[in-house]
């Protein structure tokens, strides 16, 4: 089944990207996590018609893609869930927002602006998350979550989910494959088998959980111990990186930098 | 039903993050994750199971389309409301990080819309009361379908409220809801049936795995007071969102519109709009930034675009230079 | 006379009442012995091993590890001295990278990070798996997973090594490598397996189990060459002793 294989492939691909030894991959995970959240917050704070202001904020993903050596195509592929939804939500604006504005002497519906801005926000926010996860391994991200005082048990639970997602996906994939081999021409799972196919997968999952639990117990799980602190030390570079981008994001979202700059350039050229 | 970042405003996102975090903190305490060490691996692996099971396509009889499993209801039937809720958080986080299905900022909303209703409401309002006197096939099927339909309706309605409160769409909440609710009614029915099929299978194969029945309940059981608190919190938040949505005035064009289009000629002018503009002008964070000679139509727009191009070029150049020097230093 | 490490007396155990899986097992093992527990599927081999590390509670009889009885209060001491390698490496390797997984136990026992690192390096060296150190678990092949799983228990420097069906699904080369590692482990090891060739290559002593009871306990060479005994209890001669023509072949 393509969907399941695709998902496994995608998770592995992301992990491989994050495991590369790029400069941006080595930035402290907490710095990247906070910047990403701050950036997304700044993007969605933009007024709903301010598409040009939004362009300024594109510097962060552009730099991220270049520094992280990420594929733009991959980044765009990740829009497949978000963009349709965002566009569908923005589409009514096109018809309901009847006011018109003069834009270079042409009358344009204001709804168009708000729809484009919304789509732009969708693109930028997805890119920002992509840069985060493609340059930060999950171990490090979990470490950042611990620094934010997310309970250790919860972080461990999340790491286990991540670890076993691919295992169970592959198991589900094999079951569906075995089903399709014996049920040619069917697109999905027939009604009669709904419960048993998924139920068996669930029971196997439970058995696996039991095994995992036992092997954790045997290796001292549940004994009190401190979480390994300082696994990723905070360097001067990390702080500089944080301040640099925090400054840029603040400037672009608080001041109309682009028109000022455009005027300056215009003034010089003319 | 996963909300994207672009659809929420920071205020809404923050509120929902706070609500979800409160529910999570409560759950962590309830299931005693720190002492009941077995919960962690079971929840971890069950999260992976739900993720995998949601990728399986189930053919809906009589139609060509396919349905999927409803995670929240299934998990709460197996792990209880709190355990199910925490497990769903893990699933949603992975969907968001690795598949961009739902946004990072909107995660709080998504946890609330899908995990909270699915696990807490589904379990406390439907699963537990119905299973109090023991499991039967019929009751499991009824509870699954009812639970999925109800919790999906609540989730869908929350999406409407959150989107409207965020002020990203012109679509009135009523119209939005009129689209969302029926769609999710159908989805809920199908998801409920799939969930029922799985739970009935578990009931027949390993009934001890189901929670909340006559079998002695493990930890994670909610007290009556806890139930009331949770329901009260849910009601308060819903009410808060409703009022937020109601007060998001028909604000008309925002002040920045004028900047985009230069000296914008607004056809839909009216007293209301002018008053709104005055308010916005007064409360706007930024002073107006008109420059001499740029007040012609589209003036600011042009300079804006020129500026944007310059900044992006500069950014690309700087990055390439940075990498060039990094690489030279590295070799 | 060397020190007795494992001491099991008259052990009964069942998941359900009236349906015992182990019916009166008595078994002792000393320091630096290597014991192969053999028997057909469902003979109770894995259950016995899991009882030794206290994974199942309600047993009847007596189990003592290094003179400490196996009960709830002694589990953490006992488990720090026994390394248990699961049949399914997939459930033993639950962290994301090999390093993190091998470091899991030493960290849980509160060792400082430098010591943890030393332990990991040593475990990797003993298994010859240094190149896997930073690899993600999902990228490992079946053989590599087994190596990593063994390394995860060696990092605790156990006095006793228990292995459940270690050679399942390994290719010949990985299997040979595994035998080399097992033979280089100097302390007591107990290997439950129906791969009799493997047992013959690694163990001096064999314990034959059949339907929850110990049928025979003695030198591996003797038990594993007794065709009648093995066939009566659902096993066959090791492949290396079968030969294609049916005649005996010296190893």
Secondary structure layout plus pairing:
The complex is a heterotrimer of chains A (270), B (331) and C (251).
Chain A: H1 2-18, H2 29-45, H3 51-57, H4 59-67, H5 72-77, H6 82-96, E1 100-103, E2 106-109, H7 110-135, H8 138-147, H9 152-182, H10 194-218, H11 236-254, H12 257-269
Antiparallel strand pairs in A: 1-2
Helix pairs in contact in A: 1-9, 2-7, 2-11, 3-7, 3-11, 4-7, 6-7, 8-9, 9-10
Chain B: H1 10-31, H2 39-54, E1 58-59, E2 66-67, H3 71-99, H4 107-131, H5 137-166, H6 173-205, H7 224-247, H8 255-260, H9 271-283, H10 299-330
Antiparallel strand pairs in B: 1-2
Helix pairs in contact in B: 1-3, 1-4, 2-3, 3-4, 3-6, 4-5, 5-6, 5-7
Chain C: E1 4-13, E2 22-30, E3 34-38, H1 45-52, E4 60-65, E5 68-69, H2 75-81, E6 82-85, H3 89-92, H4 98-108, H5 113-127, H6 142-154, E7 160-164, H7 172-184, E8 188-192, H8 196-202, E9 205-210, E10 213-219, H9 220-223, H10 227-232, H11 239-242
Parallel strand pairs in C: 3-8, 3-9, 6-7, 7-8
Antiparallel strand pairs in C: 1-2, 1-4, 4-5, 9-10
Helix pairs in contact in C: 4-5, 4-6, 5-6
Features:
heterotrimer; B: 331 residues; mainly alpha; Arp2/3 complex 21 kDa subunit ARPC3; 10 helices; C: six-stranded mixed β-sheet; four-stranded antiparallel β-sheet
Task: Describe the protein's architecture and organization.
The complex is a heterotrimer of chains A (270), B (331) and C (251). Chain A is 72% helix and 3% strand. Chain A is built from twelve helices and two strands, in the order H-H-H-H-H-H-E-E-H-H-H-H-H-H. In chain A, a hairpin with a 2-residue loop joins strand 1 and strand 2 (106-109). The longest helix of chain A has 31 residues, at 152-182. The model of chain A has no long low-confidence stretch (mean pLDDT 83). Chain B is an all-alpha fold. Chain B has a single domain (5-321), classed as Arp2/3 complex 21 kDa subunit ARPC3, CATH 1.10.1760. In chain B, 69% of the residues lie in helices and 1% in strands. Chain B has helices spanning 10-31, 39-54, 71-99, 107-131, 137-166, 173-205, 224-247, 255-260, 271-283, 299-330, and strands at 58-59, 66-67. Chain B has a two-stranded antiparallel sheet with strand order 1-2. Chain B is globular. Chain C has 251 residues and is an alpha/beta fold. Chain C is built from eleven helices and ten strands. In chain C, strands 6-7-8-3-9-10 form a six-stranded mixed β-sheet, with helices on both faces. In chain C, strands 2-1-4-5 form a four-stranded antiparallel β-sheet, covered by helices on one side. In chain C, strand 1 and strand 2 (22-30) form a beta hairpin. In chain C, helix 4 (98-108) crosses helix 5. Chain C starts with a strand and ends in a 9-residue tail after the last helix. The chains are: A mainly alpha (270), B mainly alpha (331), C alpha/beta (251). Chains in contact: A-B, A-C. At the A-B interface, helix 1, helix 2, helix 3, helix 4 and helix 6 of A face helix 1, helix 2, strand 1, helix 3 and helix 6 of B.
